[in-house]
Every structure is written in structure tokens, then in C-alpha cells.
């Protein structure tokens, strides 16, 4: 890692089972019980699950039918996204009291660059602890945090002591931390990629690090370059406040590859609803719709169509996606589907991103 990169202090804050936690906070009768936000025992997909439900294998993106099978006592709760957004605003207001360099990833997680901060505190670990305490006292929810020199390591670290915990990876610990990390814990390495790495004899960061960039690019394409650098602690992406989106997307990787276009349409309908929610929550619409297809052999294909007008409605999105799906026959079984909206009505706006470098201390 270069010296400039190790001077940064990045915190990743991740709320614990956010949607489910809000429901349990607002409804005391749900506390301590296994709940699923979204879906039902007959249809639909779970959006989030409480930790009590996760013990039974209930998690986001699992079907409601399977969730109920795994946990017969499961309680289904309809999502209330306006409420989640309201709570998220309170949490982000706390973030802004510490630094202007806040990059929201979603309603329930964000990166904070506290290299220089409004509190004048040189310890990123103490700042993370203070932020988590304030969220609990002022909002009533728990959060976990990861602290390190870049976003990649901080993201992984925030998952280490969940729920309601934090982990700091100091600059001189980064390489050892990544070398000892199970490959399935690497951010950006999903279930299918994990299995492929196992087949190639890659089980830990150290074994990933032993592979040449040519080897990784051969087996994983452009992602191979990413894996080569991050396992060496190289991830210099800045925290980007006030980021103006160039696209909004929703995608899902399936546990079982899809072979029927009927099943694909069912999943695309769910993705279209998710995309509509994200667009409307952010008051965004767009003209260009892209269907992303990743096949079981990891080959990837995109199909796009640009409309003459801005849309954000799931019905109109799905109508266009269906047209793109039937544009040509599937080349193989499908492991991932995604829908993206670009050519947005935000593209005439500008965002200024400032990345500061200051002496590093934890």
C-alpha cells in the first residue's frame, strides 16, 4: 500500500437488521421474535429479517414460502419505506455532525471519511464508538462499524462483530487481516464466485494473493484485476459525498440457475418493483433501461432501450424489460438478473467531491 492511502481514516457504519429493527422498535410486541419484512407465507420475497429469524436461515431475497418453511413461527410484516427513510435521515444527520465526507450506500449504511473531522478527534475508533452510542441513544437502534484505511477493508470489518459491535484494522494490520480472511468474507465475492475460487484452490486471502494478475483475469475477467489489488490492500476509491447517481439499479444472484423465461419474468417483476421504489424514494426518473444477464458460465450480456420520455413506474419498466428479455434466445441458464435505469433527470446537476489527506492515527 502507498503511504498516502494509509493516511486515510474511513468508517463504515452499517445498521443492524435495519428494516426489521425499526419494526421491532415501533411495535414492542415484535421484540425478541422472528420477523420478516416483506413477502408472505404464500408468495413474495423477504426484504429483511430480524436476527431471531436469521437463526433459522431466513434472510433477504429468500421467498416467503421458503422463509415460513424454515421458521414456522415467522411473523411477516409489510414494509414501510417512508418510515425507514425518516429514521435514516435522523441517522445521517448525526453523521454530518462529524464530517461532510459522508457517502450513503443505502438507507442503512454509509462510509464516513474522518481523516479530518469536525470533532477534532484523532481516533477514528473512538469516533465510531461515539457515533454508534448516539444512534442508540437518539434513535433507539444499534449499529455496527468497521474502521480502516480504505472503504473495502472498513466494509468487511463492520461485519466482524455484528450486531452492535465494531472492529478496527490499523494500517500495519491490513495485509495480515486480508491474508487470513476466508475468501467468502471478501466484499464482492458471492456464493458462486466463492465456489469457483474453491475449485481453483483459493480458500483464503493469502491463497488469492499467491495468484498472478494474469491468472485471475483469465478466470474472473475484469473482476480478477479488482481481486488482485484489494487483497494487497489497494483500494483508493474516495468517499464521495453528495454523489449524483448516473444510474440506479437492482439485481439479484440466484441460488439455483434459472432456465425458464417464465421464472425470469417473475424475478424481473420483483426487481422492477425494487427499482421503482429506489427511483421514487430519491425523486429520480430515467429514459434508458438496461437488462443485465449473467449466465451460469459467467458470461455477461446487457440489452438496453432508450425511451423518448422519463419514467419511474414499475409497469413501464417491466414492459420494456420484457421486450429486452425476448429480444433473443437465452444462451445458457441464468445465474443473475438485473435492471438498471440511466440517462437520469439528475445528469444536469453537478456534485463536488473533495478527498482530504492528513496524518494518520488510531
UniProtKB/TrEMBL annotation:
Active site: 109
Presence of keyword DNA damage: yes
Residues at which Mg(2+) binds: 14, 108
Signal peptide (from-to): none
Gene3D superfamilies, per the entry: 3.30.70.270, 3.40.1170.60, 5' to 3' exonuclease, C-terminal subdomain, DNA polymerase, Y-family, little finger domain
The protein's required cofactors: Mg(2+)
EC number: 2.7.7.7
Alphabetized Pfam families for the sequence: IMS (PF00817), IMS_C (PF11799), IMS_HHH (PF11798)
Reaction(s) catalysed (UniProt annotation): DNA(n) + a 2'-deoxyribonucleoside 5'-triphosphate = DNA(n+1) + diphosphate
MF term (GO), any: DNA-directed DNA polymerase activity
Domain of life: Bacteria
Localization per Swiss-Prot or TrEMBL: Cytoplasm
Assigned protein family: Belongs to the DNA polymerase type-Y family.
Entry protein name: DNA polymerase IV
Lineage, top ranks: Bacteria, Pseudomonadati, Bacteroidota, Flavobacteriia, Flavobacteriales
Amino acid at each position: 500500500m502507498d503511504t498516502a492511502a494509509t493516511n486515510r481514516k474511513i468508517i463504515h457504519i452499517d445498521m443492524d437488521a435495519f428494516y426489521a429493527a425499526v419494526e421491532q422498535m415501533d411495535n414492542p410486541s415484535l421484540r425478541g421474535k422472528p420477523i420478516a419484512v416483506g413477502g408472505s407465507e404464500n408468495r413474495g420475497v423477504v426484504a429483511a429479517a430480524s436476527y431471531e429469524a436469521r437463526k433459522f436461515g431466513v434472510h433477504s431475497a429468500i421467498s416467503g414460502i421458503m422463509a415460513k418453511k424454515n421458521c414456522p413461527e415467522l411473523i411477516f410484516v409489510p414494509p414501510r419505506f417512508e418510515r425507514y427513510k425518516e429514521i435514516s435521515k435522523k441517522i445521517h444527520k448525526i453523521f454530518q455532525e462529524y464530517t461532510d465526507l459522508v457517502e450513503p450506500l443505502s438507507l442503512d449504511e454509509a462510509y464516513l471519511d474522518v481523516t479530518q473531522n469536525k470533532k477534532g478527534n484523532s481516533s477514528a475508533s473512538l469516533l465510531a464508538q461515539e457515533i454508534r452510542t448516539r444512534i442508540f441513544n437518539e434513535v433507539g437502534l444499534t449499529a455496527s462499524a468497521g474502521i480502516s484505511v480504505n472503504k473495502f477493508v472498513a466494509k468487511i470489518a463492520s461485519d466482524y462483530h455484528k450486531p452492535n459491535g465494531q472492529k478496527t484494522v490499523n494500517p500495519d494490520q491490513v495485509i495480515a487481516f486480508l491474508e487470513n480472511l476466508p475468501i467468502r468474507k471478501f466484499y464482492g465475492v458471492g456464493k458462486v464466485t466463492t465456489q469457483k475460487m474453491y475449485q481453483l484452490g483459493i480458500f483464503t486471502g493469502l491463497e488469492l494473493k499467491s495468484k498472478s494478475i494474469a491468472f485471475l483475469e483469465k478466470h474472473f475477467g475484469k473482476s480478477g484485476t479488482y481481486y488482485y489489488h484489494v487483497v494487497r490492500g489497494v483500494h483508493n476509491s474516495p468517499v464521495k459525498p453528495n454523489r449524483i447517481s448516473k444510474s440506479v439499479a437492482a439485481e439479484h444472484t440466484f441460488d439455483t440457475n434459472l432456465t425458464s423465461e417464465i421464472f425470469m419474468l417473475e424475478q424481473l417483476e420483483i426487481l422492477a418493483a425494487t427499482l421503482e421504489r429506489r427511483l421514487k424514494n430519491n425523486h429520480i426518473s430515467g429514459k434508458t433501461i438496461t437488462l443485465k444477464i449473467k449466465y451460469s458460465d459467467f458470461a455477461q450480456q446487457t440489452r438496453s432501450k432508450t425511451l423518448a420520455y422519463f419514467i419511474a413506474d414499475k409497469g413501464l419498466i417491466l414492459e420494456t424489460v420484457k421486450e429486452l428479455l425476448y429480444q433473443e434466445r437465452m444462451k445458457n441458464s441464468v445465474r443473475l438478473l438485473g435492471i438498471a435505469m440511466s440517462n437520469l433527470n439528475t445528469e444536469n446537476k453537478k456534485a463536488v467531491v473533495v478527498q482530504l489527506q492528513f496524518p494518520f492515527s488510531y
